[in-house]
Request: fold
Amino acid sequence: MTSASKPEVDHPTGPAPTDLHIRDITVGDGAEATPGAKVTVHYLGVEFDSGEEFDSSWGRGESIEFPLRGLIKGWQMGIPGMKVGGRRELIVPPHLAYGPAGSGHRLSGQTLIFVIDLLGVG
Reply:
């Protein structure tokens, strides 16, 4: 399956959510991701506060495959139920991402926005 083009993320207004926010941009019609599944995705990550991109598989020119259980909690909770061919936006608060400020990761304390295209489920 070829992936759609790299998404654009509109800079959000208002306060960052304190809970995981899940919004389907496109609903897929392929296999459904389940908790603990191995997924192949294209994704874009943007900081909620600044709107700055911090990571993008599109920027590297290739999708990535990994088991959900090895990812941040926001992805473990936000990808299951998604179907191959879909595009989903996740807004992930710090406690479901890289923890509170000072936790040692450069994104700790940040609310993060991800746009994820689900390309495959293994």
